[in-house]
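Quick question, first post here. What does this chain look like in 3D?
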Amino acid sequence: MLNTGRNIIPVALMVIVLVLAAAGSAHAKVEGDTIVLGAAVSLTGKYSTNGKNTQDGYELAVKRIDEMGGIKVAGKAYKLKIIYYDDESTPAHGAQLAERLISQDKVKFMLGPYSSGLTKAIAPVTEKYKIPMVEGNGASLSLFNKGYKYLFATLSTTEYYLKEAVNLAALEAKKQGKKASQLKVALAFENDPFSQDVRAGVVEDAKRHGMKIVIDDKLPPELNDMAATLTKVKALKPDLFLVSGHAKGAALAVRQTSAMKIDVPMIATTHCDSAKIAETLGAAAEYFLCASQWDRSLNYKDKWFGTAEDYAQRFEKEFNYAPPYQAAESTAAVLVYVDALQRAGSFDTKKVRDAIAATDMQTFYGNIKFDVTGKNIAKPMVLYQIQKGEYKVVAPTQWASSTLIHPRPKWSER
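> Answer (accepted):
Ran it through. Tokens below.
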């Protein structure tokens, strides 16, 4: 049967539409003078607090960029807008929302969710569609050994969490006229993926310095008692004791080292700021070292926010609470896009992806430079030391605001 003219025109128009859609499929969603990004974040569920921190960090970046005249791409200024969906703290739902943002909302640039688990769920989706995702809240090392080309993280990944403590111990040994290889190290790490990733980084650096690991205990997930490990610590007298057991493990380490009067020259743990050990455990927490991603006292600086303290004050004025590192690293993720879009001079996703990969910049949050896996290799972790009930940054030494007290005073001398 012959086609009539009425049939031919719609078919021709359909072909043109499909061709144009295909031609534009690699370009960012732009509405007039606004670049649209997408993010699935945890606004409800178990991650809702940190999900809100993440969103607030994104929104402060958007507001600041617009205040400064927007992003200049190929000579034209553009504003930023983010489409959000609530992933309900559920990985499967996060993956569905990523599909929706890309397939239905036509978003071509993604920002990350909160947590490694949600990032692990979304990364295969963005990779499938070759959509860049810059994230600040997925630290798991396992995200970066799968060969992803479109995933980039502004934060330090898990293997870096306590490396700075090993390096600090080596530096202190040198000051005392000792070799790092003379130091003994004790490890107590929860038997979960996060803590075991942290352990891998510590073991690598301890071996690099020639340190001897004399205790290497795996702590159970229920983590109600560390007495067996601490008894060994008391007997073997290590120079450095490292603990990773999330907030519960940090609080337990403080309570039991105090109760058992464990004397170790240096003790460092993850999550002691979220465990609020300085606020709740008083003198028992003194001189503990605590790993963190960022602090407002650091002297990093950028052209958008100024110093870390400038950023913190702006954030507090906007949201009426002090910015946790989750917010700061989220703001930094947006700044990576701003920098990359301007350098790319294009909305082509491949060109912007390549510009992101070539990032080498300093922000209020820290230095950002990605390796081939998408990890940020330029920003070290921060180490706090509890001094007179306050969290003081003592490492990295070039960014520190306070001097390390080492060795920790013995209990009999306090």
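Confidence is low (pLDDT under 50) at residues 1-25.
The first strand starts at residue 30 and ends at 31.
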